[in-house]
Amino acid sequence: MKPIIIVGAGMAAYTIARELRKLDKAIPLLIITADNGGFYSKPMLSNAFAQKKLAEQLVTQSAVQMGEQLNANIMTGVRVDNIDIAERKVVTAAGAFEYGKLVLAVGAQPIRLQIGGDAAQEVMSVNHIDDYATFRASLLPELRNAARIAILGAGLIGCEFADDLAAHGHAVTLIDPNALPLAALAAPALSRGLHAALTARGVDLRLGTTAAAIDRKGEALNVTLANGDTVEADVVLSAVGLRPDLRLAQAAGLRTDRGIMVDLYGRTSVEDIYALGDCAEYMIDSEGRSSPLPYIAPLMSAGRAIAKTLLGEATPIDMKDAPVIVKTPSYPLALVPPPRHAVANGRWETEQDGERTIARFIDADGRLAGFGVAPQEAKSRGALLAALGTVVAAV
After folding, report:
1. Which tens digit of pLDDT belongs to each residue from 340-393?
2. Which of 15, 124, 174, 393 gets the most CB atoms within 10 Å of its CB?
3. What is the mean pLDDT of residues 40-67?
4. What radius of gyration, in Å, describes the C-alpha atoms of the chain?
């Protein structure tokens, strides 16, 4: 029997491998990864400093341990060069391997900004455990003192890193073109609350501008902003977002848009090839709308469904709404952002419940289509989740 081949060894890859093994203990399983194959929780990368975690402490199981646990052959340090669809093979420098079915879990790549200056190439990003190790090492010997860190991007990851690094004693400057942090996901009232909390934490927010140039100035980096201001830093970290890795898919002729397009069952446009995780663009409703969903809950749902489909039980992915928990301890947030298509014709309504701020997004039909709450906790999240889709206001 030809194996199921999984390309990648991140959370998406190991999630679907585990789900497969729950259903079938013996089907041949080959996992091919360009890295060392160790398992770690990627979301932990943005809040590991305050916990004083080294990179190796975030890895909970090695590739050997994962292989034993999953009864899988895991090939590490092997990059897939291309997919031969006609021959049903993945081609690598270590050889070509036939597949019965193929799963792409290749993740996403950091968006690279076009920035001027003689030190623009020194901007770092953290999208992998190795990136975290390099970033952490770059702060030495400042780990014993306060390093100056400029973060480009005040979205989800940028805000989490800012809160975490400031809590660890570093001097953080957060730079973003929007007027408020987390502007693309949160209601304005919640963004203002996060702004106040980060400021109280000691983060210097430079909003409504971008980094125009980064130049070496002795031992420091000089960041020139578009508004003319300058920020001096020891390290510059880019957190402006990720872009699904489409290289393999596009070279093989798979249908792509913002991500690798998959149907309700996780199937790509080519027979017996599937995709999930940060690289995928999922169908999100019955009207054929699609979107990348770079969060844990969609990944888990996709893994459970695709595993069943791979084994012959066609199972649609159940994309239930699940809150995004923002790891900013100074202002704990839970968010269900409204669908992109609903934003233009909807509105945010905000109420104050004691110290808790609750924001509801009401769509054009008067239905609850998204929410945010801070400080978040299970009871308030659950009540808002239960009300999603219900009519809460007159049109």
Report:
1. 888 989 999 999 989 999 999 999 999 999 999 999 999 989 999 999 999 986
2. 174
3. 92
4. 22
Q: Which of 5-9, 206-210, 290-294, 364-368 has the lowest mean pLDDT?
A: 290-294
DSSP code per residue over 361-375: EE-TTSBEEEEEEES
pLDDT value, residue 289: 86
Angle at 14 between CA 9 and CA 19, to 5 degrees: 155
What contacts 350, CB < 8 A, 6 or more positions away?
A: 187, 189, 357, 358, 359, 360
Q: What is each CA distance from 342 to 52, 96, 283, 361, in whole angstroms? A: 41, 45, 16, 9
Q: How far apart are CA 68 and CA 242, in angstroms?
A: 32
State residue 142's pLDDT score: 59
pLDDT, position 356: 95
Q: Is the pLDDT of residue 395 over 60?
A: no
If you average pLDDT over every residue of the chain, what do you get? 94
**Region for 307 from its dihedrals, namely left if φ exceeds 0, alpha if ψ lies in -120 to 50, beta otherwise:** alpha
The size of the chain, in residues, is: 395
Strand partners, 110: 242
One-letter amino acid of 298: P
Report which DSSP code applies to 2: P
For residues 338 and 370, the answer to whether their CB atoms sit within 8 Å is yes
DSSP state letters, 203-227 = -EEEES--EEEEEEETTEEEEEETT
Residue 324 to residues 157, 253, 295, 328, Cα–Cα distance (Å): 12, 33, 7, 12
